[in-house]
Amino acid sequence: MRKNKKSLSIGNNLIENYKNFLNNGKTERECVTQIVKAAEAKGYKNLAECKSVKSGDKVYVTKMNKAVALFQIGSANIEDGMNILGAHIDSPRLDAKQNPIYEKDFITYLNTHYYGGIKKYQWVTIPLAIHGIVCKTDGTSISVNIGEDEIDPVFCISDILPHLAQEQMKKSGSEIIKGEDLDVILGSINPTKKDEKADDEKKKDKKKKKEEKITSKKIILELLRKKYDIEEKDFESAELEIVPSGKARDCGLDRSLVLGYGQDDRSCAYTSFAALMDSDASVKTSCCLCVDKEEIGSVGATGMGSHMFENAVAELIARMPGGYSDLALRRCLANSNMLSSDVNAAYDPINAGLYDKDNASFLGGGLVFNKYTGSRGKSGANDANPEFIAKLRACMINANVNYQMAELGKVDQGGGGTIAYLASKYGMNVIDAGISVLSMHAPWELTAREDLMQAYNGYKAFLKLK
To answer: Which residues contact 185 (CB under 8 A, 6 or more apart)?
Structure first.
């Protein structure tokens, strides 16, 4: 398809903004911070600070700084439902344990627990960064971001050299690296080095020196205390995420792809958010929902399995003419349409046997609609109604949006879930609609620039759905 200069310019801006979003949003908190800042610049207000809400208003609700819902109020009665773009902003990673710092034979480690579905062997020997927050008992919070600035040190997990790896190489992929061995190196020390301390009087006598043994852990803790005012006990109330260090980059000589960490599902979250920001209030109220914990089952207070979204909508209705009623809330949710903005596995020619090619999604093929996710026999799936799909097809065709219908892979190969089935419990129309990702759940994932643009345009078209 030939593109005019205007559309190309918009596309380039979207992609560059998207890469910046990835670079500055490697945790849920960082994503929410960016989203709220950009939304406020567009006139969105914190719903908690609004006494009333009317047609045309733009408001947002956050939960624990790790989930956010944004609403653009339409002209229709809220009971007629909303058009919702729902994505998640958590990604597979490593988390620091509660008592994480230990020293073993002169090397100091950060003890971790992996989060979400990862191939553990992919995380060794790559540069890593530490992002997160440390909450102190005096009520203060300290933001941590080490390993992203060019002058920062980075971290890594060691691996066995091939010369000694005969036994390791006999193991299956899931056993090559154990979860308990995914400990991050924080520092080390020469075991023969000593720290010599003496007062003025003792300095006069060179034969009398007081030697104090230095440990690697002591040095690390002292650096943390001096730079961040963090004591070892403060890790008990910390949320530290270990992620790949580095920026999202264009990939390929033709720059057709984006290589970056966390594109599942921030590629869909960002394009959904951008679509809402660039849309005007329509007849139906528009909503962009970015939740947490999808990678571990949508659990917790910030996951889709909680009442977070339901409560946010209830607060919205309470500020509208007529006020809150349980029936109004139920009608609003039941009459809503939702795109569960989540990624799909891109067809991999090198591993073609894992896919049903006629029902696979391709890089550059456009927005992916997945009628049902789940695994083996549609377990845990939301199965979208064909009437809703037909309506979406017409919407995409009218908006000149390229789309494809696909499944994750061959039926017996496995599968995966999204937040779609949790939204459908309210009775609304829901279907998964997202972006194809190659190397999904790897530290560095691949998406196509064209798909990012088509998703953005498709989400914008969906928000106008009547």
So the answer is: 107, 108, 109, 155, 156, 157, 158
Q: Which two tokens stand for residue 209?
A: 């020196």
The rounded percent of the chain whose pLDDT value lies above 90 is 85
Is the bond preceding residue 265 a cis peptide, omega within 30 degrees? yes
Q: In the structure encoding, which two tokens stand for residue 300, read together? A: 């917790």
What gap in Å lies between CA 283 and CA 3, rounded to an integer? 30
DSSP state of 89: -
Using DSSP, state whether 369 is helix, strand or coil.
strand
Please identify every stretch of the chain with a pLDDT value under 50, giving residue numbers as ranges.
Answer: 1-10, 195-196, 198-199, 204, 207-211
DSSP E strand boundaries for 309-373: 337-340, 344-345, 367-370
pTM across the whole model: 0.92
Beta-strand ranges (E) seen in 189-275 are: 194-197, 210-213, 238-244, 249-251, 257-260
Residue in the block written with tokens 């950060």:
110
In sequence order, which ranges of 25-171 are alpha helices (DSSP H)?
Answer: 28-41
Among residues 90, 442, 114, 96, the alpha carbon closest in space to that of 297 is found at 90
| pLDDT per residue as tens digits for the range 298-350 | 999 999 999 999 999 999 999 999 999 999 999 999 999 999 999 999 999 99
Residue whose C-alpha is closest to residue 239's, from 450, 28, 455:
28
Helices and strands in the chain: count of H runs, count of E runs: 11, 24
Helix (H) or strand (E) holding 184: strand 184-188
Distance separating alpha carbons of residues 452 and 464, to the nearest angstrom: 19
Helix, strand, coil shares of the chain, percent, nearest 5, are 35, 25, 35
Taking phi first (over 0 means left), then psi (-120 to 50 degrees means alpha), and beta for anything else, what does residue 368 get? beta
Pairing of strands 249-251, 93-104: unpaired
What is the Cα–Cα distance from 457 to 466, expressed in whole angstroms?
Answer: 17
CA distance 305 to 278: 29
How are beta strands 337-340 and 82-88 bridged, if at all? parallel
Tell me the C-alpha distance between 101 and 394, whole Å.
56
Separation of alpha carbons 188 and 203, rounded Å: 29
The Cα–Cα gap between 416 and 296 comes to 11
CB 90 within 8 A of CB 68: no
User: Which amino acid is located at 184 in the chain?
Assistant: V
Q: What is the DSSP letter of 57?
A: -
CA distance 395 to 28: 31
The alpha carbon of residue 415 and the mean position of all alpha carbons in its chain are separated, in whole angstroms, by: 19
Q: Rounded to whole angstroms, how far apart are CA atoms 94 and 112?
A: 6
Could you tell me if 144 and 228 are in contact, meaning their C-beta atoms sit under 8 angstroms apart? Answer: yes
Tokens of 217: 């852990």
H-assigned helices in 42-195: 173-176
